[in-house]
Amino acid sequence: MNNVLFDITGMTCSACSARIEKSVAKLEGVQSVAVNLLKNSMSVSFDESRTDSGAIADKVREIGYGASARLAAVKTPIPRLSGVKADARSMQYRLVVSAIFTVPLFYLSMGEMLSWPLPAFLRGMENAGVYAFTLLLLCLPVIFAGRSFFTVGLRNLIRLSPNMDSLIAVGSGAAFLYGVYGVYAIAWGLGHGDTETVHRFMMNLYFESAAMILTLVTLGKTFEARAKRKTTSAISKLMDLSPKTAIAVRAGTEVEIPIENVVPGDKLIVKAGAAVPADGIILSGAGTVDESVITGESMPLDKSAGDKVTGGTVNLTGYFAMEAKAVGADAALAKIIRLVDEATSGKAPIAKLADKISGVFVPVVIAIAVITAAVWLLAGQSVAFALTAAISVLVISCPCALGLATPTAIMVGTGKGASGGILIKSAEALETLHRARTILLDKTGTVTEGKPSLTDIFAEDRETLLRYAASIERMSGHPLAAPIAAMSEGMETLEVTGYELIPGRGIVGTINGETVCGGNSRLISERGIDMSGFAHIERETAKTGKTLLYFSRNDTLLGAIALADTVKPGSYGAVAELRRLGCDVVMITGDNAVTADAIGREAGISRVVSEALPADKEREVRRLQESGAHVVMVGDGINDAPALARADVGIAIGAGTEVAIESADIVLMKSDLYDVVTAIKLSRAVMRNIRQNLFWAFIYNVIGIPVAAGAFYLLTGWLLNPILAAAAMSFSSVSVVLNALRLKLAKTV
Fold it and tell me: 573: buried, middle or exposed (CB in 10 Å: 19+, 13-18, 0-12)?
C-alpha cells in the first residue's frame, strides 16, 4: 500500500473537496482519500499494483482541478509549502479593489431613498441616464475583481455539481443582469417620455446588491487565505528546529559541517548550549540534556557514556562525544515533522451546511425561475411580466443572507474570543469545537506550571540550609538550581571556591574552608554521610513525583529541599467545569507514571496516560477518533504538535512553544486552562447562532419565492416585484447580522 500527498489547485469550497474525494475514491485500487481544503492538498492511500499517482492526478484534472504529486526529498523530510502567501496577497488585492468601488456604489444607490446628499448631476429624473450609467461603471470593476466566482461557480453549475461559488454567481449575476436591463429600460423611458418606467427602474437597479455580495464573500475568502498561510507555516517552523550544522571528528580534527553531510557512524561533538545534531549514543563525556521537545519531560536529564540522545534536543551543561545513529529523514524530529504534515493533510474538511444545501437549492431556484417565466408566457402574459416574475424569484433567492449566516456569526464569535484572550485561527475550529466530548490535556505547562519550583524544606536549621543551598546553587546553570538560587535575593550568601560539577550527581564546593555538597542521594551517600533519617521522606516525595536534593557541610547532612512542577491554581476548577459540560478529561504526558498519577490526582483527572512520546500522543488521538470521539488536544510543547494537528481541534497554551501555537487551531493567550472551557462555551453559542441565521436566511425564501413566482396573483393580484424582492432579501441579511451581534452579549468570555 502506498500513500502519496498531492498538491491541488482550483478548490474554492468544501463542495469542491467533496467532489474530488468522491471522484478519486471511485478509482480502482484507491483505499482512502482525504482532501484538505485549507492546505490545498490531498492524501491518497492506494494499491500501486492497480493504479498509480499519475492516474490519480489525471482523474482530478478530468473533473476540472489541478493536481501534482509531491516528490519525496532525501534530506528534507517534508518540502516547504509554496504559493500560500501569493494567494493571500491576491485575495487582499481583490478585497481592496472591491471595497473601493462598492462603498461609493452603495452610497449613491441608497442616497436618493435615504435623502443623503448627492451631486447635482446625479439627482432628478432628467439625470436618470447619467445616474444609471455611473452605477454600472462602479459595479463593473467589482464584477471583474470577483470574476473567479462566476467562472468557477458557473462551471460547476454546468457540470451539475454546484458549490458556494454557484450561489454567489447566480445571485450576484441575476442582480447585475437585472441592473443592466434597468439601464436599458431607463434609456428607453427617457427616449419615449415614460417617466413612470424611468422612476421605477432608477430606484431599483440592484447594482449595489451584485457588488455587495461579491465584496462580502471576498472578505471571507481573505480571512481563509490568511488562515492557510498561518497553518502551513507550522511545518516550516518545525523544520527550522532541526540543527543546521554539526561538529564532526574527521581525521582526528573537529570540523563544523552542514547537517546534510552527517552520516550514520559519524563521531560528533556536542558542547554546552548546543543542539544535539542527530539521534545517537554518547561515547564519552557527560551533559544535562533538555529533551522536552521530544518527550515533554519537564526535568532535564543527566546523560553519560552509553546513554541515547535525540537530535533536536539541547545540551544545557557539559561536553560529550557521540556516535550518529539516525540522521535526516530517519531522525526523531523528522518523524515528528512528518506526523504533523500527514495529520494536517489527512484531516477531513468540515462540510459547511450552506454548501450542502447549495447542491439542491441552486438548481431548484433556477428551475422555479424558468418554470415561472414559461408558465406566465403560456398564460398569455407579456415577456416583461414573465421576466419580472422570474427575476424576482432569483433576486429574493439571492444568497446574500445565506452567505452572511456563517461568516457573521464566526466573525463576532472570534472577535469576542480575541477580546478575552482566546485566539481562534479558523472558522473550522470554532465550528468543530462545539462537538468536543473528549479533552486530552498535556501535563507540563498545561495542567502544571511547566517549571520546577520549591515545594518543601526538610531541616532542623532551615536558615542555615537555605543559606548554604542558595550560595552553592547560584554557581550552577542546572535548571533545578534556579528556584533554589532565586532564594539568594535578599539573603546574605557565602563565597564559594573550588566549585566542581559532578555529572549525574550534583555539585561540590568550598565555603569558609568547609566542603559543601548539593545533589541527589548518590552524591551524599558516596561521601559516607548518614542519610537514614531521610529514608521515609525520600519514599513519600517519590510518590508525589517530587525531586529531592540533599545538602551537606563536611560530614554533616544539613537537610533536603523538594522541587516539583506544580499544578496551576486554576487547573482543578477547569477540569471540573469541563466535566460539567459533558466532556471526558484525559491527561497525557511523557513524564513517568508516578509523577503523572500524582499530578492527575491533584488536578482531579481520573484517567492518566504516562510515558507517551509524540507518536504515542498522536496515536492516542487517532485511536479515540476511530472510536467515534470528537477529540480536543490541549498542549504547549513541540512534542504536542503531532497530536495538536491530528485532533479535531488543537488548542495551544499561549506560553508554549511557537511551533505548538502554529500547529494548533486555537491559542489561549493568557495560558489559562479555564479558557478551554470558555472556548467550548463560545463555540456552542456560535453554532446555535449559525443555525438560527440559516433558518432566518431561508424562511424568507420559503415565504417569498411562491409570492415572487406569482402563486397568489390570480387570487389576490399579488406579484412580488423586484423592488419588494430586494427589500425582503435585504431584510433577511439585516436580521442575520443583528442576530449574530447578539453573541456579544453572551456570557462566555
Answer: middle
d(CA 250, CA 255): 7
pLDDT (tens digit per residue) in 632-661: 999 876 778 889 889 999 998 875 555 666
CA distance 273 to 302: 14
What length does the chain have?
A: 749
Can you say whether the dihedral through the CA atoms of 381, 383, 385, 388 is positive or negative? positive
Convert the pLDDT of each residue in 267-287 to its tens digit: 999 999 898 999 999 999 999
**Which of 484, 407, 415 shows the shortest CA–CA distance to 690?**
407
- The pLDDT tens digits of the residues spanning 675-724 come to 899 999 998 998 888 888 778 777 777 777 888 888 888 777 777 655 46
Domains and CATH numbers, the chain: 2-72 (3.30.70.100), 73-241+335-340 (no CATH), 245-330 (2.70.150.10), 347-419+676-749 (no CATH), 422-446+570-669 (3.40.50.1000), 453-564 (3.40.1110.10)
Q: What is the largest CA-CA distance in the chain?
A: 117
State pLDDT tens for residues 446-484. Answer: 888 877 888 889 998 988 898 899 898 887 777 778 888
Tell me the three state secondary structure of residue 253: strand
Question: Is 442 considered catalytic here?
Answer: yes
**What one-letter code names the amino acid at 637?**
G
pTM: 0.58
Angle at CA 128, nearest 5°, toward 126 and 129? 105
Query: What are the φ and ψ backbone dihedral angles of 267, each rounded to 5 degrees?
Result: -90, 125
Give the pLDDT confidence score for residue 384 in this predicted structure.
59
Closest CA to 705 of 439, 252, 452, 367: 367
**Partners of residue 66 on adjacent β-strands:** 9
- H and E: helices and strands count for the chain: 25, 24
Give me the DSSP letters along 618-677: HHHHHHHHHTT--EEEEE-SGGGHHHHHHSSEEEEETTS-HHHHHH-SEEETT--THHHH
Which residue is catalytic, options 302, 442, 565, 672?
A: 442
Please name the residues in contact with 647: beta carbons below 8 A apart, sequence gap of 6 or more: 440, 621, 631, 632, 633
- Starting at the edge strand found earlier in the chain, the sheet holding 584-588 runs 422-424, 666-668, 649-653, 631-635, 438-442, 584-588, 607-609
